[in-house]
Design goal:
With 346 residues, the protein is an all-alpha fold. It has 19 helices and no strands.
Length: 346
């Protein structure tokens, strides 16, 4: 959810702020809006939250409230809280929490586009670039979501995201990511068999059928073609491949490194986005260490979009519930908070 004002609700006097799919199944989030969440309800929840944040802190109540409501409702609650009490909710959460629990609660209090813009900035800060995070944010999300991140980045940092990415990245991968943030995808394009076959043939000619790939063709088709049409292109591709290869196999044979990962991510997300995020969560928790950043980022950012779908794919593909995996890999109030987002207290 991007910045907005809740329709039909009186605006609370407050400080000014500049902070302001796999279409195979209907996307379903775990956190859903409440029709009766008006100023009176927000006031009652703000009082409960304020009491819970006084020592001794009742973290169970804090988690319960902040994972019950949508980000739009949470931001409204925050406005009420900040007006009613002589402290800022963000400051109170920072004072009373730490580490991964704090990161999760603060993520819940951000608009999704601002949250992902912050992660984008973090991925480009310092000596090295975190290409893995950039691939998840830009190759793993819809054009509408990417557009919201691009706008939020400009507002938050006063800089063009495209210009920043241009200076941070290089080669074919840079062209792929720039193609995505330039927002040139035509989602109104009709899904015609002849057009899908033409594009499949063009991809084959630019890759498997020639000595030395033409990456620019892949960038153009992947970044400018509507997702519904691209799904059909991917289905047809084995029919035009001389070796009857899938589009995934063709990409693996022709590309390497971040470009390969980016293209494969796009194929997976355009074909089945919940399965992609289920895999990302699985990889974040497998092995000895946990990638808490990815875990928090995905669970929070997908909680109102398709986390129920992601849970189903996780169970189907890995033979274990997402809640059980998170419970095994985390602990304490951090675990309770993530399970509350998932809507499972197992």
């Amino acid at each position: 959810m991007s910045e907005g004002t809740m329709p039909g609700r009186s605006k609370v006097k407050q400080r000014s702020s500049n902070n302001a799919k796999p279409l195979i199944t209907t996307p379903r989030g775990t956190i859903k809006p409440h029709k009766d969440f008006d100023e009176e309800a927000a006031t009652g929840q703000a009082k409960k939250l304020h009491r819970a944040l006084q020592k001794p802190v009742n973290m169970a109540v804090v988690i319960s409230i902040l994972t019950k409501y949508t980000v739009e409702e949470r931001k409204y609650l925050e406005d009420v809280y900040n007006v009613q009490f002589d402290e800022n909710l963000d400051a109170a959460l920072r004072r009373e929490t730490s580490a991964n629990l704090q990161a999760t609660l603060l993520a819940l209090m951000q608009w999704e586009n601002q949250f992902l813009a912050s992660w984008t900035r973090r991925a480009m800060k310092g000596l090295g670039t975190d290409e893995k995070t950039l691939i998840e944010i830009f190759c793993g999300r819809s054009q509408a979501e990417v557009q919201n991140v691009v706008k939020a980045y400009q507002r938050m940092h006063g800089r063009s995201l495209e210009a920043e990415l241009r200076s941070e990245l290089s080669g074919d991968f840079r062209q792929l990511i720039l193609g995505l943030v330039q927002l040139g995808r035509n989602e109104d394009e009709l899904v015609g068999e002849n057009r899908a076959r033409e594009l499949a043939v063009e991809l084959h000619a630019a890759g498997e059928a020639r000595r030395g790939k033409d990456a620019a063709v892949f960038v153009r088709i992947f970044c400018e073609t509507g997702c519904a049409l691209l799904r059909r292109v991917f289905e047809i591709y084995p029919q035009v491949s001389a070796k009857a290869n899938s589009i995934e196999k063709a990409i693996r044979s022709e590309f390497s490194g971040d470009m390969k990962t980016g293209l494969l991510t796009m194929v997976q997300c355009i074909s089945d986005q919940p399965a992609y995020f289920a895999e990302k969560l699985y990889r974040a928790m497998r092995g000895l260490g946990t990638d808490d950043g990815a875990l928090i980022r995905i669970l929070v950012s997908r909680s109102e979009i398709d986390l129920e779908n992601v849970k189903e794919k996780y169970q189907l593909n890995y033979g274990k519930s997402l809640a059980a995996a998170v419970a095994d890999d985390t602990s304490g109030d951090y675990r309770k908070c993530l399970l509350a987002i998932i809507k499972s207290w197992a």
